[in-house]
């Protein structure tokens, strides 16, 4: 199941539990606030930011509309430069390919560059089942791995942890899997980063195989691109003898020149930097320089399903910057785990149903994990209209239940509304009846209906339902204009 934490409940249940965690909400509010401020500052420096967004969106859209041709060109360019190209239909096939490469070289451990797609397919678990240890080398990913945790943010997977919690994780777990944390470890960020650096160094120097993803894959040259901020990616991409890169097929861009707007949009939108400290590019293998054996796994895993959706396919433009998460009021309060996926937040709410299809209760809940405020679209560097896709996916969820033998309470409620609004006389009588109820409630100084019984409780537990007005619009019109309102 692509990108889903198995066994997670539907979003409303998971979010309800998250909202009760005050420490989590404090951590998220602080971290997303800092990232938003940094992004706003560097975006404000660019006079033609909107034009740059349009250019980035156009590059990705052109690439998707000619995806088959671009992928064939990419395979040819990679092969010509010494890389071995594999095609994987789904997570199981991609994992099998990586495991087979590891076994062919008799390695029992690999180092990894931060990669959403390898988390999506559950690669670490597949390697572990084959007796191969996979070490995350990104600082935040290391925190998540050592803590036996799950990522909760695209850019900062450990955003839900504070410094004190990270210190305890390092002290408790580092010694079990490698170099232990120093006895005098404090919770100062520089000290924590130093402990991680010492712990990872022996793994970098020892590993003979690395696994990466790619931010972009250039079709005309066969160049793969990884952008990161810590240097761990550069270590993984240069030191080991064997490199396997798992790349979603939507990461392709047609030409080298078309990387330009994307490499200007990504760092400002993600880390709030003018450019990433490390932008690594490699094209196949080079004798005597870097990995001598390079494998590229081009992964579908639901992407062609998403591409076939004329409204939803724009989600494949995503460059994984996480800007939509950092401005989303729902994500800031519920956190990433509530989405039950390695793709949380607004982009996860559309990407997971598009990749997996609707019909599963947990996945079907995701398009409703939004207030439709539109902040995500305004922040998206490649102009994905996430609210539009959310509404589109909600319609798919509803359509999927039209044939149910037992209709849902929501469907019954709308049928009742259709019956009432379908006849003006009927609606008028119901308005007068509700007016009586409204007057009674106001005499009792009540402005809401309170908690409704039965299925209605789910609605009123999360929002106030105002008491009906004492006077309907029709009655007001008749009283003030002296005549009946024309039907």
UniProtKB/TrEMBL annotation:
Positions of the Lactate utilization protein B C-terminal domain: 397-479
InterPro entries: 4Fe4S_Fe-S-bd, 4Fe4S_Fe_S_CS, FTHF_cligase-like_sf, Helical_ferredxn, LUD_dom, LutB/LldF, LutB_C, NagB/RpiA_transferase-like
Skewed-composition ranges (Basic and acidic residues): 472-487
Residues in 4Fe-4S ferredoxin-type domain copies: 315-384
Protein origin, superkingdom: Bacteria
Listed PROSITE patterns: 4FE4S_FER_1
Swiss-Prot/TrEMBL keywords: 4Fe-4S, Electron transport, Iron, Iron-sulfur, Metal-binding, Repeat, Transport
Region described as Disordered: 449-487
Domain LUD residues, every copy: 73-299
SUPFAM superfamilies reported for this sequence: 4Fe-4S ferredoxins (SSF54862), NagB/RpiA/CoA transferase-like (SSF100950)
Protein name: LutB/LldF family L-lactate oxidation iron-sulfur protein
Source species: Nocardioides humi
UniProt lineage: Bacteria, Bacillati, Actinomycetota, Actinomycetes, Propionibacteriales
């Amino acid at each position: 199941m692509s990108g889903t934490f198995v066994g997670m409940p539907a979003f409303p249940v998971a979010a309800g539990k998250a909202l009760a965690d005050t420490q989590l909400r404090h951590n998220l509010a602080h971290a997303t606030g800092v990232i938003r401020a940094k992004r706003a500052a560097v975006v404000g420096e660019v006079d033609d930011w909107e034009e740059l967004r349009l250019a980035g969106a156009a590059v990705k859209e052109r690439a998707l509309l000619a995806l088959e041709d671009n992928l064939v060109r990419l395979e040819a360019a990679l092969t010509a430069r010494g890389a071995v190209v594999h095609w994987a239909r789904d997570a199981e096939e991609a994992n099998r390919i990586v495991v087979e490469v590891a076994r062919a070289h008799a390695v029992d451990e690999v180092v990894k560059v931060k990669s959403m797609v390898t988390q999506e397919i559950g690669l670490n678990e597949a390697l572990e089942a084959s007796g191969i240890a996979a070490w995350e080398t990104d600082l935040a990913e290391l925190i998540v791995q050592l803590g036996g945790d799950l990522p909760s943010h695209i850019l900062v997977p450990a955003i839900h942890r504070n410094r004190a919690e990270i210190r305890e994780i390092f002290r408790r777990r580092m010694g079990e899997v490698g170099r232990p944390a120093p006895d005098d470890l404090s919770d100062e960020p520089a000290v924590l980063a130093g402990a991680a650096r010492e712990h990872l160094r022996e793994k970098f120097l020892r590993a003979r195989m690395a696994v990466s993803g790619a931010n972009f894959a250039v079709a005309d040259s066969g160049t793969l691109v990884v952008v990161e901020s810590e240097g761990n990616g550069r270590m993984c991409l240069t030191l080991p003898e064997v490199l396997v890169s798992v790349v979603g097929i939507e990461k392709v861009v047609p030409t080298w020149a078309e990387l330009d707007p994307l490499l200007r949009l990504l760092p400002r939108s993600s880390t709030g930097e003018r450019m990433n400290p490390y932008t690594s590019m490699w094209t196949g293998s080079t004798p005597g320089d870097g990995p001598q054996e390079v494998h590229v796994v081009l992964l579908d895993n639901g992407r062609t399903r998403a591409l076939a959706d004329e409204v939803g396919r724009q989600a494949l433009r995503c460059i994984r910057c996480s800007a939509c998460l950092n401005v989303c009021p729902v994500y800031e309060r519920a956190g990433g785990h509530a989405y039950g996926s390695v793709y949380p937040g607004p982009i996860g709410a559309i990407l997971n149903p598009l990749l997996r299809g609707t019909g599963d209760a947990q996945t079907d809940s995701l398009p409703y994990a939004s207030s439709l405020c539109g902040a995500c679209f305004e922040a998206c560097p490649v102009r994905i209209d996430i609210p539009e896709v959310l509404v589109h996916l909600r319609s798919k969820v509803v359509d999927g239940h039209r044939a149910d033998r037992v209709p849902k309470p929501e469907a019954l409620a709308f049928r009742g509304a259709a019956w009432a609004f379908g006849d003006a006389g009927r609606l008028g009588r119901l308005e007068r009846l509700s007016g009586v109820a409204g007057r009674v409630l106001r005499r009792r100084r009540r402005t809401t209906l309170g908690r409704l019984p039965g299925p209605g409780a789910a609605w009123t537990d999360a929002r106030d339902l105002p008491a009906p007005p004492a006077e309907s619009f029709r009655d007001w019109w008749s009283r003030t204009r002296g005549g009946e309102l024309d039907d």
